[in-house]
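Form 7-S
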Amino acid sequence: MHRQNTDPTLKWLLNERAALVGRIARLQESAAAAQAPAERAQRRAEELAALVAALTANQQAAVEELAALDVVLAASYPAVNPAAGGVVRATTGKYGHRGALREFLLSQLRRVAPKSVGTGALARLALAEFNLRPLTERERTNFRKQLRIQLRKEAAVVEELPVPGQSGAVQWRWRAQPSFGDIARELNRGQDAYAIGPEVGCQRTGSPPG
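Output:
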């Protein structure tokens, strides 16, 4: 029986095609494997970008709050220089100091309020703040659990909000408190002096403290 020899050029082309098919398959597998981490990294970047935007906005809000506080001081204690108290820069110390992590978490939520922050974003901020380097995924998971436990203890001032469409995921938000701006507006409207406290009321009415 006569065997027909395969054309060398055809054989080479078929081999090249098979190699390309294999390369495409490997690239598809690699792309699929990288997709999930890439999406997680994008979400992290978006969370941190939102934090930066919130911090920037709240810097301006803090300036406005300072001006409102000065209005309250001027109305209640006109003889007092508002700058007499100096400047206080709160610090948390190194992580491990009693209460340092709690203070850091609450300060971050206050700074970005009324925005909410995910546990993952808070964990990354805390790791950077205290120069911690968890080596394993289990260590990172345990650290996030530690943050959740700490934040749930602060339910009086921190809200826990479920994330729609993400089972088990939550975000955290500082509970709104009356601002000095609110108090200043109350003063400007001439409402009852005791709405801002009996001590301030005494200053406005000239009556002695009770």
